[in-house]
Amino acid sequence: MSEQNKVDAVIVGAGFSGLYLLHLLRKNGFSTRVFERGDDVGGTWYWNRYPGARCDVESMQYSYSFDEELQQEWRWPEKYSSQPEILAYLQHVAERFDLRKDITLETSVTSAHFDETAKRWTVETDSGEQVSAQFFIMATGCISTANMPDIPGIDDFTGNIYHTGNWPHEKVDFTGQKVAVIGTGSSAIQSIPVIAAEAAHLTVFQRTPHWTVPARNVPMTDEYERSWKDEYAEKRANMRTSMSGSLRAVAPIDVSALDVTEEEREEAYRERWAAGGMTLLRSYNDLLTSEAANETAASWVRQRIKSTVKDPKTAELLAPKTYPLGTKRLCLDTDYYETYNRDNVELVDIASAPIDRITATGLETGGRSFTFDSIVLATGFDAMTGTLLRVDIQGRGALTLKDKWQAGPRTYLGLMTEGFPNLFTITGPGSPSVKSNMLTSIEQHVEWVTDALVNLRDNSVVTIEPERQAEDAWTDHVQEVANQTLFPKANSWYMGANIPGKPRLFMPYIGGVGAYREKCDAVAAAGYEGFSLEGSDKGAAAAE
Ligand code: NAP
Fold it and tell me: How far apart are CA 443 and CA 18, in angstroms?
């Protein structure tokens, strides 16, 4: 095997995680190769190019903090960044830190097998290349495998069919077309107003209405930008120790929603609805733990829907009733409900009568036949584990990750899994990941993993792997924390409930970004407590 094919670390994915990890590992003297299936860097922001695609975390917070010059120099044009802006930022980062030379594009990793004698991973790609690496790091994101719905006849459609998570690179022009959108999650809620403004007619097929609140996106002002850039060090530090990895525009009120008057609640919800963003969900400290408290906010939002959408039947259909507010990912929108007041938009309920089949010219449901030029599948992702399990990963004793996780993902800290030495998952299941500002969590994971690798090298440790007991305890803890909340009450992708046959358990860790960071730091400081280290005296590897 050539020297180029023998490296310290192989990283899969060149999105936010992979790019920063490559930068930091290289800076610390590790030879590293990155494989990326797209023909450019960007990850999520490379694939999700659907109309209206935008981040629902504010630009000033959804950006790297690791380089002071970068965060001071980069200028975000809007409060919430659009997909092209974020992609341009990631392309800039790749150039700025000279990352491209170690990234192989248009190449998927197909397998990674741990060789117990050599104590190295043998990684294979779809181009037939084989690489040997001491460390194998999946930086593949949490929502990167599109969920193609199993609707009969889907291959028969002769018009255009798109998935929001795998959108064409050239502009899709819906002008004059009859368009269908299937699904009403975040991707649909962002794209529906934009498609409706362009298409001749849009029909939206809804199985479950999602909760959505206005984003209130605005152009960035110099004052707002300065307010962040002048205090970046302090604000970033607060983000790192916060619950969600983000700072809220309107501070949470630290009392129960049930301990205030109806008038006070009304004012709190009105203020946060007007400010826009996720802040509504943290109006009171028990909206995500008490059904009664949650219902005060939920019924308030249902009233907003009814007062916005003119057709009462449509308004009724759009109002979620079957799961608490915020227990599926809360969506942020721009004119979503207003869009249903347009003459060229119709909402069709497919909860009462599912789609029977897709035909050559459209689809059939509830005794009605529709014709379309284009169908947009906004049907989501096999989230959190889908991409990890798509690669043939085999650990000790040829155990496959698929078999190990048959009943659901088991990890220690969402970073590693027992039986798979030196395999790391960036923002893996069991870490705050999707229940946090991804950027805060990505940076924390990348820095923890890099510190660990430096530490192992300094102490001549060859492999690191979680102990069974530590993994069991953490896996139970992730569920215990989730079970104290309302989250398990929704059939969400957090629970794996959107994919038929997928084990049902809450995958992200919701104990809080700050508390999680403390735990990870304490584990490292105690000589990687709960991990077994092979190749040297474990005590010597304590973090400094
Ligand atoms: P999603 O939230 O999983 O929504 C998928 C939608 O498709 C749901 O309405 C679902 O209905 C429907 N669906 C799935 N399979 C179906 C079928 N066979 N027949 C009919 N309907 C079907 O997916 P998403 O909208 O792509 O969002 C996924 C996540 O990506 C978000 O939660 C968010 O974390 C992230 N995201 C973020 C942003 C942002 O930053 N602004 C934007 C887009 C996405 P059911 O609810 O009944 O299952």
Answer: 11
In this structure, the chain runs to a length of 544
Distance CA 536, CA 534 (A): 6
Of 217, 244, 220, 219, give the one whose Cα is nearest residue 54.
217
Distance 28 CA to ligand 1 centre (A): 39
Q: Which of 419, 206, 436 has the alpha carbon at shortest distance from 315?
A: 206
Atom number in ligand 1 closest to CA 57: 40
Where do we find the tokens 């036949």? 369
DSSP structural state of residue 209: P
Tell how far the Cα of 379 is from the centroid of ligand 1, in angstroms.
5
* Among 366, 337, 300, residue whose Cα is nearest residue 209: 337
Kind and range of the H or E run holding 113: strand 109-115
Q: Is residue 237 a contact partner of residue 245, using CB atoms and an 8 Å limit? A: no
Residue 76, Cα to own-chain centre: how many angstroms? 21
**pLDDT score at 538:** 47
Outline where DSSP puts E strands in 383-469.
392-394, 423-425, 463-466
Atom 12 (ligand 1): residue with closest C-alpha?
183
Spatial distance between the Cα atoms of 166 and 53, rounded to a whole number of angstroms:
12
**HSE of 113, CA atoms in CB hemisphere, 13 A:** 7
Q: Identify any residues that bridge with 114 across adjacent strands, giving them in sequence order.
A: 121
d(C-alpha 27, C-alpha 155), whole Å = 48
Bridge partners (DSSP) listed for residue 111: 124, 392
DSSP 8-state symbol, 350: -
Segment 343-386, tens digit of pLDDT: 999 999 999 999 999 999 999 999 999 999 999 999 999 999 99
CA distances from residue 514 to 287, 288, 430, 472, 486 in whole angstroms, order as listed = 20, 18, 15, 22, 21
Lowest mean pLDDT among 16-20, 189-193, 245-249: 245-249
Q: Please give all residues whose beta carbon lies within 6 A of any atom in ligand 1, as ranges.
A: 54-56, 143, 149, 151, 164, 182-188, 190, 207-208, 329, 332, 350, 378-381, 434, 493, 498
SS (H, E, C) 123-147: EEECCCCEEEEEEEEECCCCCCCEC
Question: How many Å from the N-terminal Cα to the C-terminal Cα in the chain?
Answer: 36
Residues 6+ apart with CB under 8 A from 351: 206, 207, 208
The reported pTM is 0.96
